[in-house]
Amino acid sequence: MSMGTFLTDKKVKIRVNGSVPGEDIDFNEGAAVTSNDSTFSGVFRWRFGEKWSVAGQYWDSSDSSFVTLTEDIGWEDYTLKAGSNIGAGVELTVARVFFGRSFHTGARHEFGLGAGLHWLEFGAFIEGEFFINDESTGFRREAVSADAPLPNIGGWYWYAFSPRWMLTTRVDWLGITVGDYSGSLWNANAAINFQAWRHVGLGLSYQYFALDVDIEKSDWNGGADLTYRGPFISLNVNW
User: Any idea what the CATH number is for the domain that residue 98 is in?
Assistant: First the structure.
């Protein structure tokens, strides 16, 4: 089990279509949502039987800000004008469960494949003075949200340099249409782990999560392009 801090560098673009398809809104630049964040992250793995295991992961990220627009932004059939002050925010929660089987193990290495499920909750909002056909509709807050279970396949490889040092890598992938969602998902990690004591170790890894999805729901017709990446510093406990 690992617990620690995920130092994310995030890039967020969303699209909310109106009567005609819209353009992506860059929340890092146009809405000035910060690209850097730190959040708690937890990972666990339990081996049952000689070759089977189940793993899990959880982390979330949220941020909001206020900014003066430098260009017009379109949201459904509404427009927020350049020069106006707006508030904006995004949040993402990721929970992952993965069942795997080891196919090749040795004294110093292990390789396995499996399948899992990501549960994602994503939301975004913009608030300010909205216009439609150049006429003000007044101050309002518009928000979209989506949550979905997305299945995936993946694999991992571990290599122990010595009794105390180990390299671990894993990757999950999804490219499929599921209900109202279609697109791709990548969730990858590469880590160096040091076993400082018998049951306690330290880890430094690089985490990469990317979701590019089109959404066709009654309350959100559009899409999202999300990338969260950065180091994960952890305390590892094993028994």
Answer: 2.40.128.90
Distances (CA, A) of 32 to 27, 126, 130, 238: 6, 11, 18, 41
Q: Which two tokens stand for residue 10?
A: 């995030």
What are 36-56's pLDDT values in tens digits? Answer: 778 899 999 999 988 999 999
Residues in the chain: 239
> Cα–Cα distances in Å, from 207 out to 6, 7, 218?
8, 9, 33
69-127 pLDDT, tens digit each: 888 888 888 998 988 888 888 999 999 999 999 997 777 889 999 999 999 999 999 99
Residue 112 to residues 5, 100, 172, Cα–Cα distance (Å): 26, 6, 12
- Which domain range does residue 121 map to? 2-237
d(CA 187, CA 152) in angstroms, rounded, equals 10
- The structural domain count of the chain equals 1
